[in-house]
Amino acid sequence: MPFECSREVVNDYEKLFESDEEYDVIIYAGENENVKELHAHSLILRTRSQYFRAAFSKEWTEKKDGKFIFRKPNISPQFFKMILRFIYCGKIDLEKLQGPDVLKLLIAVDEINIQILSDYIQEYLIKNQDEFLQQNPIGILEAVYQHETFTNLWNSCLEKICEEPEIFFNSDKFISLKAPLLELLLKRDDLSLDEIVVWDSLIKWCFAQHSNIPQDPTQWNKEEITFMERTIHRFVPLLRLHHVSSEDFIIKIYPFKEIMPKDLVYNILMFHMAPNKKLNMNMQHPRQPKSISTLIKADHFAIFSSWIEKKNNFHYNVKNIPYNFNLLYHASRDGDTAAEFHDKCDNKGATIVVVKIEDSEQIVGGYNPLFWDSSNSWKFTNDSFIFSFTNRDNLQTAKVGYSNGNKNSVACYSSNGPVFGGGNDLCHSDSWTSSSSTYSNVGIPAYFDAGDWEVFQVVKK
Predict the structure, then answer these.
(1) Could you give the CA distance from residue 182 to residue 142 in angstroms, rounded to a whole number?
(2) How far apart are CA 196 and CA 250, in angstroms?
(3) Which CATH class is domain 1-91?
(4) pLDDT digits (tens, 9 = 90+) for 28-57
(5) 13, 227, 276, 372: which is deepest, by most CB within 10 A?
(6) Model confidence at 66, in pLDDT bands (50, 70, 90)?
(7) Where are the domains positioned within the chain?
(8) For 336-340, which contacts have Cβ atoms below 8 Å and span 24 or more sequence positions?
């Protein structure tokens, strides 16, 4: 039977790092008054780091009195010592660092080319420094976009921008965005903006790069047309212009036809004017905001928004949903029990419950405009409803039924999950049950098991 004592080995290497015994490497980290001398062992650095192995073999270092000399003015002594400790014993503690310092450490680690540590720090930033990433995702992108190995951090920052892009696209920072970062944004399928807004923003950005060019394209000379064509050229293939209305295309895009590919302009004109003519081109699919749900898509939230406002003959589209839907509870993640439901959802205000019926594509659920609690009591409201989509992929199968004013609109019992209606029109207990009483019949089965279910907090924007 093999015997291992890896923890003792790790501790011994950490003691060696701290002791300075028989070191043969001197590293000068930092610059000017902040420079500090650090000591290490070339054999360990060679063994544990590809960067140092290359550095020693290619003689990137000077040698003095039998010791290798490294100078790293662009990495602080604090960060270099943390990196060395990781090389020696695989330990690092990020808890005491603020977000900006974690980012600086990440960039230093990338220079030393320790990929496993780079991946760990990115994961730590994403999971534990969400507020820092949320405050300045563009600034972080500008700091890291040239580092090809930072893809996890890129995507996290881009996702945050794409969730509420209006904040950034309407800010003064947008027009000073570097072209490669604008390109990354326009590539995103989850950029939650109407395509005509994307176009308007792109044109605004192009004008900002050439402030001396007139805003009216009919006034441009040949040189100005060339400048603008070269500026917009790299972005045009990223636009989804077939998903712009014919009116917006003629009014807002067609005036710039001189800087657009002629075949693209022709194809979009044909698309709108001769819709039955088959076009010899690939049409990009429209952008879709990333769904926060594993059960439903953004279109369902748009319909919920219309039902909440009792606009049953009018549906919002995914671009103008007036509510935020924040995931509070996911049964397969949090535990399919009444206790877990109340722990996650009590006293959170208005909520939507969404349930997928097991072994089918039917989804059912209900809206509580008040709040859940564990008071073992009923609540009255005229604004609650239950619903069903016979096929969640077919929005035309939707049915909604509002409370009839019965005093038993929703029930808040600690032994149950969500309960709608005095006759348990939709009730979670050991399983799910339904019977029409307080709400009209929307086609929910009398008894069913849930494949999964979710609860979303509803907050007016």
Answers:
(1) 11
(2) 11
(3) alpha beta
(4) 999 888 899 999 999 999 888 888 888 887
(5) 372
(6) confident
(7) 1-91, 190-273, 298-460
(8) 336/450, 336/453, 337/417, 338/413, 338/414, 338/415, 338/416, 338/417, 338/428, 338/429, 339/414
